[in-house]
Structures are given as structure tokens and as C-alpha cells.
User: Which sequence fits this backbone?
């Protein structure tokens, strides 16, 4: 009876039920995995020791990425036989590479060079074997279609940029997980509406895994961090979603987002990309040091300095990023160059606004 049911079941006929099941499965698996990870981490003393730039004072496990990875792999393995097996298997391959690199970095130390090479290899797997790449600039600065090898090189650059930009915002409780959750929700809706069920399934599975992770990440007694393992695999998936969305939109002239996809992706990833550009500028031109030398000059560190709690910082950043996304979706009728120009202006203004408000409140009280 089960064989007959499986032979006659088509996820495309019931996509909502299918995606709901993927979310529930991912959530349950991750939620049941984290207590075991916490127990092993504490028993084996696999804890993060607070240092001068840490935003926490207690020793905390940093192996949350294991639960996220395990949840994603189980969901993709179960659904693989009924969806686009090639894409799912290649995504799993890339995730596995980054999982072991991140795990080694969380447990011991891994050089930036080895992480960079691993990220390149994982990205190349998907770019070459699925031909999912950014075809051109969609007339940004009057540049349209890119030559094949330039397209591959630029797509690789975007992968590396997004993975590492996402890794850099993992500095406040709930921030990285909540930002990724918001972006994944938007992508899941876009993929669902476009009929890309395989991509929507991966996005929904990530939503389930992140929802379970945030329950522990916000906890006081059972706190766990994402670690490099989690930030690399989540950043990799966000990059994959971004490039897949842009690629699908560019090759489909009938798509509502045919010319607007780069601006929408920039809006969704505005916070990690803005914070990365800002922190690199400060380190290189103001502090005159290596851009890769860690410090506490990130935007989320500024929020904490201004008196915001971890939860307030996370809610403020996510709310502003959501507002930026909503505005971007309401500017689809504009020229792409105009969309991006306005996005940079109102995005920066919205993130600067809380500091102005906080400063005025302090003055009024003083």
C-alpha cells in the first residue's frame, strides 16, 4: 500500500502540504538534536571561551551548526527521490564540504586559506554542474550579458561575499539566525510562486532548522551558538538561493522580477552586505589594519554600545531589514539602477535612524 501511495504521489499536486511537512520534519529533527549536542559539548568541554571581543560572559557550546546540518541533510535525503535529485545532491555535497571545514574550525583552528578554498570548491560544484549562475548585470550601469567565464567568476565572487558577510554578523544572540530566517521565508515564497519546488523545499527546511536553533540560541540555561559550522552552511544556502533566484529571473523574460532580481536580493541581504562593507572600510581606511582582523565595530556592536539588549538589537535589525525588503518589492516599476540607488540611500538611513532616536532620548532625559 505504501509503495502504491509513493508511486502515485506527486508533490507538485499538493505543494503546500509538501512544504509544511518539510518544515515540520526539519524543525522536529533539529529540536531533538540540539539537547544531545549540548550534552556532548559540556561533557567533552567543547565550549567557546569568552574573550575581549565576545558579547557574552559565559562558556557556551558553538556546535549549533551540527543540528542545522543534520536536519537539512535528513530532509533533503527523504525528499530527494521525489524532486530534482541532481540539485539536491549537489547542494548536499556543498553543505557537507563546508560542514566539515566549519566543524574543524569550531573544534580546533582552520586557516582562512583552507576555508576560502573549501568555499570556492563547494560553490563551483553548483555553478558548473547545474549551470546556476548570474548571467549578467541586468543593465546595471548599462552592462547586460556577461561572457561565460566572467559570469562564472562573478558568481563565485558573490558566493564568497555572501558566505563571509553572513559569517560576520554572527555576533549577537539570535541575530544571524533571525536574519537568515527572514531571508529564507522571502525566498521560500518566491520559489513557491515560481513553481521551483526543490528550491522552496530547501528554503522551508532551513526555516524549520533555524526556528529550532533560535529556541536554544535565545535561551539563558540551554544556550548554543551557531559557530562557524552553522554560519558557513547557512551563508552558503543564502548565496545559493540568491544566485538561483537571479538566474531564474534573468532567463525568464516573462518573470515579474526579470530586471529587478539583483535589487531584491540586495534588499534581502542588505544588513550583512552593508555591515561587511562598513567594517572593511573602517578597518582599512580608519584603523589602518587588516580587514580580516576581528573587532567590535560591527553595527550590532554599536547597538549594544547604545544600550540596546541582545534581543532588542536582533528585533531592530530584522525589522529594519524587513522594511527594506517591503519597500524594494514596491519599487519594481522603477529602472533597476534607480532601484539600487534608492535602496542604498533609504537602507542606510533606516539603519542610522535608531541611533538618532536613542541619542535624542538620552538628551531629553539628561
Assistant:
Amino acid at each position: 500500500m505504501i509503495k502504491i501511495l509513493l508511486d502515485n504521489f506527486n508533490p507538485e499536486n499538493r505543494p503546500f502540504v509538501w512544504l509544511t511537512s518539510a518544515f515540520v520534519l526539519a524543525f522536529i529533527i533539529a529540536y531533538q538534536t540540539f539537547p544531545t549536542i549540548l550534552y556532548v559539548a559540556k561533557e567533552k568541554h567543547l565550549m567557546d571561551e569568552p574573550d575581549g571581543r565576545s558579547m557574552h560572559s559565559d562558556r557556551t557550546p558553538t556546535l549549533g551548526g551540527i543540528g542545522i546540518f543534520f536536519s537539512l541533510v535528513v530532509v533533503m535525503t527523504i525528499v530527494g527521490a521525489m524532486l530534482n535529485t541532481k540539485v539536491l545532491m549537489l547542494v548536499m555535497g556543498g553543505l557537507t564540504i563546508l560542514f566539515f571545514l566549519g566543524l574543524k574550525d569550531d573544534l580546533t583552528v582552520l586557516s582562512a586559506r583552507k576555508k576560502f578554498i573549501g568555499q570556492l570548491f563547494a560553490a563551483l560544484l553548483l555553478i558548473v554542474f547545474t549551470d546556476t549562475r548570474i548571467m549578467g548585470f541586468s543593465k546595471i550601469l548599462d552592462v547586460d550579458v556577461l561572457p561565460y567565464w566572467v559570469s562564472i567568476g562573478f558568481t563565485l565572487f558573490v558566493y564568497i561575499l555572501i558566505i563571509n558577510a553572513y559569517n560576520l554578523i554572527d555576533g549577537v544572540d539570535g541575530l544571524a539566525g533571525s536574519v537568515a530566517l527572514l531571508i529564507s521565508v522571502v525566498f521560500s515564497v518566491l520559489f513557491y510562486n515560481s513553481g521551483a519546488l526543490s528550491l522552496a523545499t530547501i528554503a522551508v527546511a532551513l526555516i524549520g532548522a533555524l526556528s529550532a536553533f533560535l529556541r536554544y540560541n535565545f535561551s539563558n540555561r540551554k544556550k548554543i551558538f551557531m559557530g562557524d559550522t552553522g554560519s558557513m552552511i547557512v551563508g552558503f544556502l543564502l548565496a545559493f538561493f540568491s544566485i538561483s533566484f537571479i538566474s531564474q529571473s534573468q532567463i525568464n523574460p516573462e518573470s515579474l522580477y526579470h530586471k529587478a532580481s539583483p535589487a531584491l536580493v540586495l534588499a534581502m541581504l542588505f544588513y550583512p552586505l552593508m555591515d561587511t562593507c562598513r567594517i572593511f572600510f573602517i578597518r582599512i581606511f580608519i584603523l589602518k589594519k587588516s580587514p580580516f582582523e576581528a573587532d567590535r565595530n560591527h553595527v550590532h556592536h554599536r547597538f549594544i554600545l547604545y544600550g540596546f539588549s541582545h534581543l532588542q538589537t536582533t528585533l531592530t535589525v530584522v525589522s529594519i531589514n524587513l522594511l527594506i525588503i517591503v519597500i524594494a518589492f514596491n519599487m519594481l516599476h522603477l529602472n533597476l539602477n534607480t532601484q539600487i540607488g534608492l535602496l542604498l540611500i533609504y537602507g542606510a538611513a533606516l539603519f542610522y535612524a535608531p541611533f538618532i532616536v536613542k541619542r535624542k532620548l538620552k538628551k531629553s532625559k539628561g
About this structure: The mean pLDDT is 89. Residues 2-268 form one domain.
